[in-house]
Amino acid sequence: MPQSLPTEPTHFAAEIDTGLDVETDVTVPPQAASTAGPEILLELVDDEGVTIGTAEKLWAHQQPGRLHRAFSVFLFDRQGRLLLQRRALGKYHSPGVWSNTCCGHPYPDEPPFVAAARRTAEELGVAPALLCEAGTVRYDLPDEASGLIEREWNHLFVGLVTAPVEPDPDEVDDFAFVTAQELRELRAERPFSVWFETVFEAALPGIREIAGRDW
Question: What is the pTM of this model?
Answer without folding.
Answer: 0.83
